[in-house]
Amino acid sequence: MFAGLHLSWFQRAPWWLKGVTLCVPLYVLWVATYPPPTTGHRILELGFLALLQVLTTGTLWKASKRLDLPPGYRQATGWLALAWSMSVLASLLWPFTTVWQSQEANLGLVDVFYIVAYPITFLGLSRLPKASPPLPGSWRVLLDSAAFIVGVGVPLWFFAIHPTLEKPQTLISILSIIYPGLAFLGVMALNSVLLRAEPFPSRSALNLLLAGIGISWLADMMFAMEITQLTVPGLKYWVNISNALSLILALVGSWRILADPAPAQPLRPAPVSPVPMVAIVLVTLGLLPVLFSGAMESQTIQKVLAGVLLLIFVLLLRETLALKETSRHAAEAATAGVQARFETLVRHSSDLVLVLDRKRVVTFASPAALKVLGIEPDELTGKSVMELLHPEDLPMTSAFLLDLLRSPETRIHQCRMRHSGGDWRVLEISASNLLDDPTVHGFVLNARDISERHRLEDQLREAQKMEAVGRLAGGVAHDFNNLLSAILGNAELAEAHLPEGHPAGLDLKRIYGAATRGAVLTGRLLAFCRRELPESKTIDPREALKGVAPLLEGLLGERIRLVLDLGWGIWPITIDPNGLEQALLNMAANARDAMPDGGHLTLTLQNLTIPDTQVTPYLPIAAGEAVALDITDTGTGMDEATLQHLFEPFFTTKARGKGTGLGLASVYGLVKAAAGGIDVQSQAGKGTTIRLVFPRASGVIEADEASSVANLIQGWETVLLVEDEASVRETTQRILSANGYLVLAAGDADEARDILRNRTGEVHLLLTDVIMPGDSGPALAAELVQSRPSLRVLYMSGYTANELGPHGLARPDAPLLRKPFTVGQLTRRLRAVLAGPAGRI
To answer: Are 569 and 614 within 8 A, CB to CB?
Structure first.
């Protein structure tokens, strides 16, 4: 009842309110201890109470002018200020009618003001803003009706209707009925306000004001007993103390309505307030000794008070049920709020929420089911969740749910569920066992679609795998290329020395062919892993496909028809022409194997304008203008497992010895080097379409240039050969000597310096390996060119472009001969360098 009376308000209160508040305890002590009152005592009492009433009236009037108060509050405080002013007038008139004149006839004029204050107060309370009340129950309606009948009917019966009504009725008898009746009507109104009014600016301010009003009505009931001249000890003191207490509470509440800051958010009514019930209990305790004292002069008044006691009992019962009902409504509102908040969260969540019963049947599906699985929630309800799972995930998911049944702990699981479009979505599920929760009674699965993340993780693993393969390939490339150089060179030299028709000639051709295939295989692997930079140029894709068509027809055979749909106005692209030709041959070979009974292989070219980057399981297709090359066959198609590993190196579905597994891997490397994208569409029994997308080239188409030194094989110049690998050095020396060159061979840079230090003749060209023990080839060349400006330099290396880049030899125009090389490649490149400018390194 006294919520809000703590030190914080007292510290903020003005000096006059602090002074009045400190005087109240002194007044109570004085009232409780002074001897029978004299006229002076009564005037002092009435003066102090009138001062409190005047301060309360003025404070309420000022509060009604507060602009940030809701309109209802401004009107309510204005009417309450008017009601308190009626009490002020009555208090000022009281001494003239009772203290000095002792005229009971004039007592009615004072009571007019007190009684008029009641309806004005009721009007003020009715103006307070009200929240939506709880729905009334049947018991509440019944008890409200009973309270009204008893509270109004009993006084009317004994005052105006009863046949044994005492006549004439005195004014005191009339007032002893009117005051309790009005007071109890006020208590009922006060209860309604406390349960429904929206508190402002603070809950404490409203409760203090209403507590003061309620206790003032309690004092009026005591006053009604006092004027019937009942011999109840201490009743007069109790009335005076109650009046003082009610006035100070109303004054503090009024000041807080005036001074408290407005809340940031509107306050809601409290579930229940104890003020009316406390007042009713106090009245009951005060009336019981009066009713059974037998000190009443009028039996009518005694019967009226008995009716009032019945009213109290009805109100107590009514308030008890109201409290129970209000608490129930508050609990229901809280539950409804939580449920509404849950439904809002679930409705707007991108995660799929499923509730399963013990048989794994879906009993609830959130709206996200349409987004995640393409299925309406109502269609999903009633289905077994096992029907949605990928067949390979059924055992693990079944074991997961069984384990969840045994333990209530939240668990994480990943599985695939079928989308209505036919594809599979990877879901990460957080599951809880709430079978024992009566509000849920099931397994709660919170499933998040991580298909995109799963694809990105696969691409990351693929990139890491390719990086590892690339490191492996780059590490062995040098030694492998040195071996192939020696094999190729010696095979060509041996074949050149054999007479035509010699039986060993066929063996040498086989050796040469095997070494050539080994060189191509190494090149494919390095190109796929981007360890080797392709020789790209801007080409017309239509002409490129026309040029390779005869090779494709020969590869496919007579049972498979090649169809070219090349379109018109196709944009140019930048790519390695040889790599594109090899990629088409590889894909045609795979298509041929997929069509053992014959079919069609269609190559389609078209221009595309791609608005947004498309994420694919292989290489993403970037936005912009591009050229798409579709390779479509009518073969057996591929299953999902094959599609997942399609472009991995060394992955093949062919029998052992029938494929290297690098055909499509080299296609992947070619497209990736050209900044293109790849997508594949295939179904078992319905063929395959591989789409290669290349960005549109901004440059002009480059024409093929014929070699100007194609026939310049023989030479006479002096060549300083520096190679740390003995087999390559010896083979290269024999090739150059056989073609007319004078060769000075050295195993490293120091040996090359020693040879030049002892030689007086001119050296025309330095042919050196790039990476060697000791000084590198470029370091040696820089030193020699400085002392011999006419010296030409040609490098040779079996390392990849990544390793040659730090030496400045990864550029396209670098004087570099890649290992392994043939006799023709060596001699032609040698002549080209000798014909070029000197001193170039």
So the answer is: no
